[in-house]
Amino acid sequence: MSFSYSLIASCSHTKARAGVFSTPHGDVETPKFMPVGTIGTVKGITPAQLKDVNAQMILGNTYHLHIQPGEGIIEKAGGLHNFVGWDRPMLTDSGGFQVFSLSKLRQLTDDGVKFRSPKDGRIINMTPENSIRIQNALGADVIMAFDECPPATATKDEVIIAVERTYKWLQRCINAHAKSDKQALFGIVQGGIYADLRTQSAQDLISLDLPGYAIGGVSVGEKPELIHQIIQWTTPLLPVNKPRYLMGVGTYREMVIAIASGIDLFDCVIPTRLGRHGAALVQGKRINLKNAPYKEDFTPLDPECSCYTCKNFTRAYLNHLLRSGEMLGFILLSIHNLHELVNFTNKIRRAIINDTFISEFGHWL
Questions:
Q1: What's the sign of the alpha-carbon dihedral 65, 41, 84, 265?
Q2: Which of 31, 173, 248, 277 has the fewest CB atoms lying closer than 10 Å?
């Protein structure tokens, strides 16, 4: 088997677990935060810098890579790994999230979704078959099934349709998948804020015996309490011998709650997005380095952090760069923020192995 999940340790008080997800491009030690490189780059960060922050797996997006530069060019380059210069595991999202995020630019039917490209106005016909064809060409280790992600405001009747459509689309994805020996296809559990629909969706997907499973349709407008409930309902329904991926979540508390429920993988654009806006994550708290108090603060961004930024630069220098609009400031903050979240999941992994998860991280629950 090219893919496997091995359980290393479990928490004695929660469902938190430490494991190893093995892929053709290497192992991912879970739980793990995965940086997002939507169009083939984690914004402002080189692959070498990603390795320096201990990233093991990064993401790309099928919809955006299809628009530019096109999967044909990437395939000619030898696949996404070669094209972007990354020799560790990669995952591609299917374009299903764009069903939600580009709702004003799309037409949704049982066959698939037609988008009007925001770049040049052309019509893009994204069906389950086309999504898988594109992802096969891109060549990521993990590819996601094309799904319908309903907004938090959807009615239960609308979510029922989305759950049924997601299951039917998954079956079509499986039939279209031409590289199952090289690429693991993950299904995505939908169901909105309804426990019965989450259960139905999970059971439907599990019946198809996939290499891994994701929980989608969270962080799409719900209150944090509802997100926590969805995670706690859904995660125990997923197979214990397969990796579990919570899509689009990357805040401290939400990750700890999810890990306590048994989640293994996370992704979020927060680290680089905050960095581009002059903000840093310091031990879970957000600080704005553009603010005046940091102009004469000659201490490291975080004295306890071992990242390149914190070992070499002061808050005063970062404040100067940001106020001057210098690119380096945004890059240095992004490096720190990525290290912050990857290292946070690394610390949790060690705590699970040592069975100190509750004593070290229980205050987030």
A1: negative
A2: 277
Q: Does residue 92 sit within a domain?
A: yes
**Could you tell me the residue range of the domain that residue 131 belongs to?**
4-274
Q: Considering the candidates 181, 267, 302, 355, report the single residue annotated as catalytic.
A: 267
For residue 17, what are its two tokens?
Answer: 């677990």
For residue 151, being part of any structural domain is answered with yes
Taking only the tens place, the pLDDT of each residue in 267-309 is 999 999 999 999 999 999 999 999 999 999 999 999 999 999 9
CB atoms within 10 A of CB 72: 11
* pTM reported for the whole predicted model: 0.96
Q: Is residue 246 part of a domain?
A: yes
Catalytic residue check, 93? yes
Q: Is 13 helix (H, G, I), strand (E, B) or coil?
A: coil
* Overall domain count for the chain: 1
Q: Which of 87, 93, 110, 141 is catalytic?
A: 93
Q: Is 267 a catalytic residue?
A: yes
Question: What are the pLDDT digits (tens) for 323-336?
Answer: 999 999 999 999 99
